[in-house]
């Protein structure tokens, strides 16, 4: 995943939820596709950087408010080995995570 450059970037996901990406933050693939090269850091470090798009750390996305849309939950589920169908709604993705014993709170 690419890192955001010196300016904060705001994007809407497929559900219309606005996501905020701060300088130095990793960007998921769905968001990177919507950004131009000017949005990214010129030097992309090899070391691991925290992913704040999921509310920080490795926990699940929030269930309400910013960052709680289908896109965030689909990324979270996929990162935990769940094959997310395109037609699944956000709540179906959360249910699939719960069924597999993946944290949703």
Description:
This protein is 23% helix and 11% strand. The protein has 105 residues and is of the alpha+beta class. Helix 2 runs parallel beside helix 3. The chain is elongated, with a radius of gyration of 14 Å. Strand 2 and strand 3 form a beta hairpin. It has one domain.
Please provide the count of β strands.
4
Structural domain count: 1
Task: Write the element-wise H/E pattern from the N-terminal end onward.
Answer: EEEEHHH
Tally of helical runs:
3
Topology diagram in text:
Layout: E1 2-3, E2 9-12, E3 18-21, E4 26-27, H1 29-32, H2 70-79, H3 90-99
Antiparallel strand pairs: 1-4, 2-3
Helix pairs in contact: 2-3
Protein name: Conserved hypothetical phage-related protein
Region (Disordered): 41-71
What key attributes describe this structure?
two-stranded antiparallel sheet, 105 residues, alpha+beta, 23% helix, two-stranded antiparallel ribbon, elongated, 4 strands, 3 helices, Conserved hypothetical phage-related protein
Structure in a nutshell:
The chain is an alpha+beta fold and 105 residues long. Helices cover 23% and strands 11% of the residues.
